Amino acid sequence: MNPDLDNLGQGFKCIRNDFATYIKGRKIKMECKSLTSKCWIVEHGNNLAGYITLMADKLTSEYCLLENEGIGYKTFPAIKIGWLAADRRAKGVGSRLLEWAIQYVTNDLTNRVGIRFITVDALFDPDTGYDISGYYERFGFEHVDSDHTAPCGNFRTMYFDIKSVIEQARALRQSV
Ligand SMILES: CC(C)(COP(=O)(O)OP(=O)(O)OC[C@H]1O[C@@H](n2cnc3c(N)ncnc32)[C@H](O)[C@@H]1OP(=O)(O)O)[C@@H](O)C(=O)NCCC(=O)NCCS
């Protein structure tokens, strides 16, 4: 999971070409070298099956999302999913990477620094109608904007509450 960035992505085929170009190109190398992004990969043999990048973020909401916990802020510490892609021949790799990232942030990073949410700018392509927000909804991500039905750009910001995972794990432990 700690990729040799120089030889990454040969043969990688993604339903979105921009995600294949990104992993094969210079941009990801520059971002990782500059510490603005961290990349994890899944390989199948010597081939890239999927990748995910994570970075520090700040979630800004129009609402006080944690008011019922006595927290009056409208901005919150978060980790952002930058790029997530799977080879189109490798079913489920993207989901496994996303599940891994949620567990990694929850189990490892929250012990070291304050983080409440995982964020993602879910891709929406008005030219083709490609919309990945439904995919993230399946994992429990919610939309930041109350009117998310008509995105004006090419993404919709979504967030996932890490505390829900911690509470589910606690409830499971108590039930056994
Ligand atoms: C998004 C992506 C990483 C998902 O990879 P994956 O989890 O391996 O994808 P799979 O094709 O195995 O699909 C997993 C499930 O998600 C569902 N799904 C896929 N795209 C979806 C969408 N846009 N909305 C709702 N569900 C979706 C699939 O139907 C499948 O459901 P099933 O398990 O019930 O059969 C992959 O499609 C991809 O690389 N897309 C292009 C890049 C991209 O959009 N990245 C996200 C940018 S924010």
From TrEMBL:
UniProt-listed CDD domains: NAT_SF
Recorded catalytic activity of this chain's protein: glycyl-tRNA(Gly) + acetyl-CoA = N-acetylglycyl-tRNA(Gly) + CoA + H(+)
Listed Gene3D superfamilies: 3.40.630.30
Domain N-acetyltransferase: 1-163
Keyword Zinc: no
UniProt cross-references to Pfam families, sorted A to Z: Acetyltransf_7 (PF13508)
Keyword Transferase recorded: yes
A GO MF term: acyltransferase activity, transferring groups other than amino-acyl groups
Keywords, sorted A to Z: Acyltransferase, Repressor, Toxin-antitoxin system, Transferase
SUPFAM superfamilies, per the entry: Acyl-CoA N-acyltransferases (Nat)
Protein name per its UniProtKB record: N-acetyltransferase domain-containing protein
Organism: Dyadobacter jiangsuensis
Lineage: Bacteria, Pseudomonadati, Bacteroidota, Cytophagia, Cytophagales
